[in-house]
Amino acid sequence: MRAAPVHPARLRDDTNGVFHLTMACLSAALLVCAAVALQDFNYRLPASLANLYSFCFALGLAAGYCRWAKFDRLFQSCLLVLWSCVLSTLLKFPMYLAARFRTPLRDHALAQIDHGLGFDAAALVHWGASHPWTRTFFGLSYGALFPLMVLGVLLPAVRYRFQAVKELIVATSFATVIGAVLFRFIPAIGPWSVCGYAPSTAQLRCQDLLLTLRAGGVHVINLTESGIVCFPSFHTLLAIVSCLALWSIKPLRIPAAVLASCVILATLTTGWHYLVDVIGGLLLTVLSIAAARSFTALEQRIEEGRPITARRPRWRQAA
């Protein structure tokens, strides 16, 4: 007699316990950063966080139901999406804290490096402005990062590609911590401040936000506002790690790579970043991906109960 088929969501998978414990500890540390920002630096949260609370509450309910119904894979999917939502909010605070330090702005130094590399940000922006379709295309491409990130979390999660989602979250968290340290010592407004072209409305808002934070003024944190870090380029980093997460779904590989490439090019053509910002973003991406993959490898060893030792070279194993 044939056994009844098991629903794919009920199939047991890795518990991801090490990952969840690590994310809980990281969230606790980030909550301390948030408390410091809100108390000592006169930051204020917006009056209403109903949308964020409602979404997280709904995810929590969904996770609880899946746990009760023994939909183990769906339970893990809900938890991974929940962690991505929580951390995407809390990871703003290290950047806000780094912005309070009044280290001299490094725009002139970054512009000089670009000049040494033969890159002219103003010429590229003026070229884009003279071609309306190009300007529109890259403007839309720059704004496509957020949906790319959302898809990079949701689609692998619902397809049970848990390692891809975990690596995206860990890489982003690691990069944010390192990026906050770099931002502390290499703050910059953006190439429009020294390269002689008119900034867009969004660029002016970003500039005003950074200068307000540096001046010590009270700032009401808008959880949907764009980042304030110029070097390294987080648009570059987030586009690549989101693309790598979607790479786990074969039909999405080419579209994800094309979209991520357009986002990276848009950071330059729209005048948001120096070329050295993009180079710094690429280097930080490589470091963050290596850290994320090392974490998932370590997690797998711990959950399988294997000793945590360095892997021996193949030639020594053969011997």
Explain what the structure shows.
This protein has 319 residues and is an all-alpha fold. The protein contains 15 helices and two strands. Strands 1-2 form a two-stranded parallel ribbon. Helix 2 packs antiparallel against helix 3, helix 7 crosses helix 13 and helix 9 (162-185) packs antiparallel against helix 12. The chain is globular, with a radius of gyration of 22 Å. Mean pLDDT is 85; it is low at 310-319.
Write a compact overview of the structure shown:
This protein has helices spanning 17-40, 50-68, 72-90, 92-99, 107-116, 121-129, 132-143, 145-158, 162-185, 192-195, 201-215, 234-246, 253-269, 275-304, 314-318, and strands spanning 43-44, 219-220. With 319 residues, the chain is mostly helical. Helix 2 runs antiparallel to helix 3 (72-90) and helix 12 packs across helix 14 (275-304).
Key phrases:
1% strand, mainly alpha, two-stranded parallel ribbon, globular, 319 residues
* Number of helices, where a helix is a run of at least 4 consecutive DSSP H or I residues: 15
For the largest beta-sheet, the strand count, sense and barrel status come to: 2 strands, parallel
Give the overall shape, derived from the CA principal axes: globular
Point out poorly predicted stretches.
310-319
How many domains? The number is 1
Q: Give the rounded overall mean pLDDT.
A: 85
Beta-strand percentage? under 5%
The CA-CA distance between the termini, in Å, is: 49 Å
Order of helices and strands: HEHHHHHHHHHHEHHHH
Q: What is the number of E strands?
A: 2
Helix content: 55-70%
Identify the strand order in the major beta sheet.
Answer: 1-2
Structural class, from secondary structure content?
mainly alpha
- Radius of gyration over all CA atoms, rounded: 22 Å
